[in-house]
Amino acid sequence: MSETIEILTYQLAQFNLTIIELEERVSSYKNTELEAGNELENNKVESADNETETEPVTRLTLVATVEVLSNQLETVNATLSALENKLALLETQENKTSSEPAQDLASYFTSLTSSYFLFKGSENTDSYKAQAVCESKQLYLTEIGDQAEFNVIEMEIAPFVVDDWPVIIAGKRRSGRNEWVWQNSGSNVTYFSWAAGEPFQPNQDNDCLAITTVGGVASMVSIPCYVERGRFFFLCEKELPLASFRNA
């Protein structure tokens, strides 16, 4: 449960930053709208019958923008309130169960797009069971998209992972072929950083992916999906909240 609280705490921080940003934008647009209104007041146009005020299109646009931003701010505030309530409930539950064994979370770190949770295996498991554990925590086995993401993971796991202990990640070989797919997204694996001699041939049953480190240098290896092992780690991932909003 502690990792769930960490996720919610991070989400709350991101929502607070978004609220600050929206409030600043609303304030900026309102100031611009006020300036446009003052300028309009000083430039009234008299018609033949009566005095009318011509409202520029730009001011109408500003009014509409302020309304949209205000609605977004209300939505974010409502979501923030719900998250705060959920966090308070989880913290209460955490206090009630503090005597129970904690999840063996070895490390937690983030990249530009995702949060990562490195778990140390406490009992024999395999790649499918590791995937099930991630999903039970509303996470998924890590899917590595490029060299930059691999470098972050390599640096962060190095202090915790014992040489030759595999770190199970996502990645499943298509039956009988040397093609790989990510289980969560369903997309093809396009980035690899294979160790020497990898991957093993499809007929050798090494159809799942893992990372091993030797002297702090990480490489991808193919491992049997169903073989239970006592010495291992597995890396779960969760996409950072508000990523699409911040990139909009």
From TrEMBL:
Residues 129-215 form the C-type lectin domain. InterPro entries: C-type_lectin-like, C-type_lectin-like/link_sf, CTDL_fold. Gene3D superfamilies: Mannose-Binding Protein A, subunit A. It comes from the Eukaryota. Residues 12-100 form a coiled coil. Keywords: Coiled coil. This is C-type lectin domain-containing protein. It comes from Biomphalaria glabrata (Bloodfluke planorb). The gene is 106056901.
